[in-house]
Write a structure and sequence with these properties.
The complex is a heterodimer. Chain A is of the alpha+beta class. Chain A has two domains: about 140 residues, CBS-domain, CATH 3.10.580; about 130 residues, CBS-domain (Roll). Chain A is about 40% helix and about 20% strand. In chain A, the strands form four sheets. Chain A has a four-stranded mixed sheet. Chain A has a three-stranded mixed sheet with strand order 1-2-3. Chain B is an alpha+beta fold. Among the domains of chain B are: about 80 residues, Immunoglobulin-like (Sandwich), CATH 2.60.40.10; about 40 residues, Single Sheet (N-terminal domain of TfIIb). Helix content of chain B is about 40%, strand content about 15%. Chain B has 15 helices and 14 strands. In chain B, the strands form four sheets. In chain B, strands 2, 3, 6, 7, 8 and 9 form a six-stranded antiparallel sheet that branches. In chain B, strands 1-5-4 form a three-stranded antiparallel sheet, with helices on one face. In chain B, strands 12-13-14 form a three-stranded antiparallel sheet, with no helix packed on it. In chain B, a hairpin with a 2-residue loop joins β6 and β7. The chains are: A alpha+beta, B alpha+beta. The interface between A and B is large, with 44 and 45 residues. β1 of chain A pairs parallel with β14 of chain B, so a sheet runs across the interface. Chain B: It is found in: Cytoplasm. Chain B: This is Association with the SNF1 complex (ASC) domain-containing protein.
C-alpha cells in the first residue's frame, strides 16, 4: 500500500511541476513564436457579400478569417462560423427577408446580431510580441476560440493583421514543444475539468435548425449526436454550418441533422472520445498528432458522459490552482 | 571580425549592443592567448603580452579611430568566418605570427579563433584602404617580418598556422563567390552532450558541438551551409531542444525549431549574423573595452618603434614565411580537421554529417566589358549562334522579352493548394519561404464572381506573411 501511495504522490507532484513548467513556457514565448517562418493569411474586405465570403472560406479550406475595413483601414473583427449561424437564425425567423440576406455584406452582420439579440463579433486582439500566456487568457474570454494578432505599421501607424491564433494551435504548440506534457498523468476525473451532466445533445432525426439553435444558445462549437441509448454516434459542429449553406442557399434548414451531415467533406477528422480514466498526457499526445477540437467523454458502453473542450484544457493549464 | 568590436566601440552608441557569437570565440581565444603568454614567459613584462594581443586588433583600431568605417565594411567584418570570400592583402600575414607566437601553448581551437581574427582584420583593412590604416599595417608588417625568421616552428599547431598563411596568400587573388557560407552554431543552455541536427543534414544526422575554451557552458560548431534558410534543433543529453538565443519558428508540422537564414557573404548583413551578434555577452564587451584601451596605447608604441626587439621575442614559434609546398588549409578547414579526428559514429545510430566541399573553378574578374554587350553585331552573332546550337524550336525567341521576370513565375501561393491536399498537418497555413525578390509584389487572381483577390508577401519582423485580401469589385 505504501508503495502505491508513494506512486500516487509522485504522479501528483509531477503533474503539478509539469503544469507550472508549461505555464512558464507560455509566459516565455510570444504569439509571434508560434507563427511559421512563412505563412498565408486570408483577409476579407468588409464590403464583401456574406455569401461570397462563405465561398472564400470553403475554397481555402478555412473556417474563419479576419475582416478588414478598407474605409477606415482598420481591422474589423473576425468572421467565424457563429456569424453564419446568426444569419441562418435570422433568416429562419424572417423568411421574407431573403433579399436582405442575399445581398448582405460583411459589415451588415452587426445589424443581424442586433436583430436577433446576440453578442456582437468580438474584436479582441493582441500584439504578436505579447506573451503567449496573455494571448491565451484573452482568448478564453472570446467566443470565437481564437485571437487575432494585430500590430501597427511602423511608418503609417496603421493596423496590420499579422495572423490569427486558435486554441488548437496553441495547444498543439505546447504538445509539440513541452516534453512536460508527458508528466500529466493524473486521470481526468481527478482534475474536475470535464463538463458533465448538462451537455446539450441531439439525435440523428433532430432538425438541423434546432441543432443550430442549440449551438447558438449554448455558445458551444459542437453538439453531440446520440442514439436512444445515449450512445454517442456523431457530432454536429459549428463549422458544419458552412457546408450546409454553401453558395448562399438557405433552403436546407428543414433537413434533419443526419441528412445535413451528408454534406460534410471527406476529410472530416472524426469524433474523438476519451474516458474519465484517461490522462492529459494522452490527450495532448493526440492533439499533437491530429486536429482534435474536443473530446467527448464516454463510459465503457460508449454512452455520452460529458465533454472536454480545448478551452477546458487550456483553462486547466493556465489557471488551475494545483 | 576583429573589426567589429572596435567598430562598435568607436560608435559606442551601442548600435546593437550584443555582438556576434563568433566574435566571442575569438575574443576569448585572444584573452587566453594573453594569459598563456604570461604563463609561458612569467618573467616577461606584461606589456609584451598586451602588446601581442593588441596585434590582432591593431590596424582595425587604427582604421576605426582614424576614419569612419563604411557600414558595409563593418558588416562584412561581422560575418562569421568570412575569410575566404574577401581579398586578403599579404600584409596581414604577420598578424597571424603575432598571435600565433603565443599559440604554441594553446589549443588548436584557440588558434582557429586567432586565425579568424586575423583574417577578418584584414577584411577591414582591405575594405578601408585609407592611407592611415595602411600606414599602420605596413608598420606592423615590418614588425612581423622582423620576428618571423629566427624561429622556425616545428610543432603540429604551428604547421597548421603555416598552411593557414598559405591559404591567405592564395586568397589574395580574387575568387568567385562561394555557395557555402561558414556558420557558427552555438548552444549555451547547459547539457553535456550537445548535438545539432537540422534541415542541412536531412534531420537524420547529428553534428556534435564542442565546448568553447574559456567559456564554460558554451558549445559551438562551425558548419558550412549553403545559402538559404536552415531549420535545426539541438539534441542536449538525448533530449530534443531548441535554443532560446536563436530565432525560432514553427515549421510546417508545427514543431518549434530554430532557424537561420544564410545569405551569400557579399550581401549586406545577414540575419544569421544578427542572431550571432545578439549572443555576445556583455562581459565580453567589457573585456573588449579594456583591450581596446590597451590597443590604443600599444598602437602608439608600435607606430613609434615598429621593430622593437621585444616584439620579435613575442613570436618564438612563428612559422617561416609561407611556402607553396604545403596544401592550403583555411582556418575553417583546420577546425574541420579537428572534427575529422573524432569518430563518425556518435552513437544511437547517428553518424556525423560530412560536409562536401563545393568544387571551385578558377575564375577571374575583369574590368573589360565583353564585346557581346557593347558591339551590336557581335551580340547578334552571339544570339544567332545560340539559336543554331539550340536548333529548331523557339527560333529567335531572344527577340521577345519574357512576359514576367522569371523569379515572379514561382509564386508560393500557387504551390500551396497542391501541397495542402495531402497534408492535413498544414493547418497553420505554412508556406515555403519565399525568395526575397518576390516580396512586396502585388499578385492577383483573375476576377471571379465579381470578387477580386490580391496577395502580397511582406516581411513581418523575421517572418513572411502572405496576405490574401478578398474584396468585391465595386
Amino acid at each position: 500500500m505504501g508503495g502505491t501511495g508513494n506512486e500516487l504522490e509522485k504522479v501528483l507532484m509531477e503533474q503539478k511541476l509539469a503544469v507550472e513548467s508549461i505555464r512558464s513556457f507560455l509566459k516565455s514565448k510570444t504569439s509571434y513564436d508560434v507563427l511559421p517562418v512563412s505563412y498565408r493569411l486570408i483577409v476579407l474586405d468588409t464590403s464583401l457579400l456574406v455569401k461570397k465570403s462563405l465561398n472564400v472560406l470553403l475554397q481555402n479550406n478555412i473556417v474563419s478569417a479576419p475582416l478588414w475595413d478598407a474605409k477606415t483601414s482598420r481591422f474589423a473583427g473576425l468572421l467565424t462560423s457563429s456569424d453564419f449561424i446568426n444569419v441562418i437564425q435570422y433568416y429562419f425567423s424572417n423568411p421574407d427577408k431573403f433579399e436582405l440576406v442575399d445581398k448582405l455584406q460583411l459589415d451588415g452582420l452587426k445589424d443581424i446580431e442586433r436583430a436577433i439579440g446576440v453578442e456582437p463579433i468580438d474584436t479582441a486582439s493582441i500584439h504578436p510580441s505579447r506573451p503567449l500566456y496573455e494571448a491565451c487568457i484573452r482568448m478564453m474570454g472570446a467566443t470565437s476560440r481564437r485571437i487575432p494578432l494585430i500590430d501597427q505599421d511602423e511608418e503609417t501607424h496603421r493596423e496590420i493583421v499579422v495572423s490569427v491564433l486558435t486554441q488548437y494551435r496553441i495547444l498543439k504548440f505546447v504538445a509539440l514543444n513541452c516534453r512536460e506534457t508527458n508528466f500529466l498523468r493524473r486521470p481526468l476525473r481527478e482534475l474536475n475539468i470535464i463538463t458533465q451532466g448538462n451537455v446539450a445533445s441531439c439525435q440523428m432525426t433532430t432538425p438541423v435548425i434546432d441543432v443550430i439553435q442549440l449551438l447558438s444558445q449554448g455558445n458551444v462549437a459542437s453538439i453531440p449526436i446520440v442514439d436512444e441509448e445515449n450512445v454517442l454516434v456523431n457530432v454536429y459542429e459549428a463549422v458544419d454550418v458552412l457546408g450546409l449553406i454553401k453558395g448562399g442557399i438557405y433552403n436546407d434548414l428543414s433537413l434533419t441533422v443526419g441528412e445535413a451531415l451528408m454534406r460534410r467533406s471527406d476529410d472530416f477528422e472524426g469524433v474523438f472520445t476519451c474516458t474519465v480514466n484517461d490522462k492529459l498526457s494522452t490527450i495532448m499526445n493526440n492533439i499533437r498528432k491530429s486536429r482534435v477540437h474536443r473530446y467527448f467523454v464516454v463510459d465503457g458502453d460508449g454512452k455520452l458522459e460529458g465533454v472536454l473542450t480545448l478551452s477546458d484544457i487550456l483553462k486547466y493549464i493556465l489557471l488551475s490552482a494545483n | 571580425m576583429g573589426n567589429s568590436p572596435s567598430a562598435e566601440r568607436s560608435k559606442k552608441i551601442g548600435v546593437k549592443s550584443p555582438r556576434e557569437m563568433a566574435e566571442e570565440n575569438k575574443d576569448i581565444s585572444m584573452l587566453d592567448v594573453t594569459e598563456a603568454n604570461k604563463l609561458a614567459e612569467p618573467a616577461k613584462r606584461n606589456s609584451n603580452s598586451s602588446l601581442t594581443h593588441s596585434f590582432s586588433h591593431m590596424n582595425i583600431d587604427g582604421a576605426n579611430n582614424l576614419e569612419a568605417q563604411p557600414p558595409l565594411a563593418r558588416r562584412k567584418s561581422t560575418l562569421i568566418f568570412n575569410d575566404e570570400d574577401d581579398e586578403i592583402p599579404p600584409y596581414t600575414d604577420h598578424q597571424e605570427h603575432g598571435s600565433e607566437g603565443l599559440s604554441h601553448t594553446t589549443s588548436n581551437e584557440e588558434q582557429g579563433g586567432n586565425n579568424e581574427t586575423v583574417s577578418s582584420v584584414s577584411v577591414s583593412a582591405s575594405a578601408t584602404p585609407s592611407d592611415t590604416s595602411l600606414d599602420n599595417v605596413t608598420a606592423e608588417q615590418s614588425v612581423g617580418d622582423s620576428k618571423t625568421s629566427p624561429m622556425p616552428a616545428v610543432s603540429q599547431t604551428a604547421s597548421y598556422i603555416q598552411s593557414g598563411n598559405n591559404q591567405q596568400q592564395n586568397r589574395n587573388s580574387p575568387k568567385p563567390a562561394e555557395t557555402m557560407v561558414p556558420v557558427d552554431i552555438t548552444w549555451q543552455q547547459g547539457g553535456h552532450k550537445v548535438y545539432v541536427t537540422g534541415s542541412f543534414t536531412g534531420w537524420r544526422k547529428m553534428i556534435g558541438l564542442v565546448p568553447v575554451v574559456g567559456q564554460p557552458g558554451l558549445l559551438h560548431v562551425k558548419l558550412q551551409l549553403p545559402v538559404g534558410t536552415h531549420r535545426f534543433r539541438f539534441i542536449v543529453d538525448d533530449e530534443l531542444r531548441f535554443s532560446d538565443f536563436l530565432p525560432t519558428a514553427t515549421d510546417q508540422m508545427g514543431n518549434f525549431v530554430n532557424y537561420l537564414e544564410v545569405v551569400a557573404p557579399n550581401d549586406t548583413v545577414s540575419q544569421q549574423q544578427q542572431l550571432q551578434n545578439q549572443q555576445l555577452q556583455s562581459p565580453q564587451q567589457l573585456q573588449q573595452e579594456q583591450q581596446h584601451q590597451h590597443q590604443l596605447q600599444q598602437l602608439q608604441n608600435i607606430q613609434d618603434n615598429p621593430q622593437t626587439p621585444q616584439v620579435s621575442e613575442i613570436a618564438p614559434g612563428a612559422a617561416s614565411q609561407p611556402t607553396s609546398s604545403s596544401k592550403p588549409v583555411s582556418a575553417r578547414s583546420r577546425i574541420a580537421l579537428e572534427i575529422e579526428r573524432e569518430p563518425d559514429e556518435i552513437g544511437d545510430g547517428f553518424t556525423r554529417f560530412r560536409e562536401k566541399k563545393p568544387s571551385r573553378h578558377e575564375l577571374e574578374y575583369t574590368q573589360d566589358i565583353p564585346a557581346v554587350f557593347t558591339d551590336p553585331t557581335v551580340m547578334e552573332q552571339y544570339y544567332l549562334t545560340l539559336d543554331q546550337q539550340q536548333n529548331n524550336h523557339q527560333n529567335m525567341s531572344w527577340l521577345t522579352p519574357p512576359q514576367l521576370p522569371p523569379h515572379l513565375e514561382n509564386v508560393p501561393l500557387n504551390s500551396y493548394s497542391s501541397s495542402q491536399g495531402d497534408n492535413n498537418e498544414n493547418n497553420s497555413g505554412a508556406l515555403p519561404i519565399p525568395n526575397h525578390v518576390v516580396l512586396n509584389h502585388l499578385a492577383t487572381s483573375s476576377i471571379k464572381h465579381n470578387t477580386l483577390c490580391v496577395a502580397s508577401i511582406v516581411r513581418y519582423k523575421r517572418k513572411y506573411v502572405t496576405q490574401i485580401l478578398y474584396a468585391p469589385l465595386q
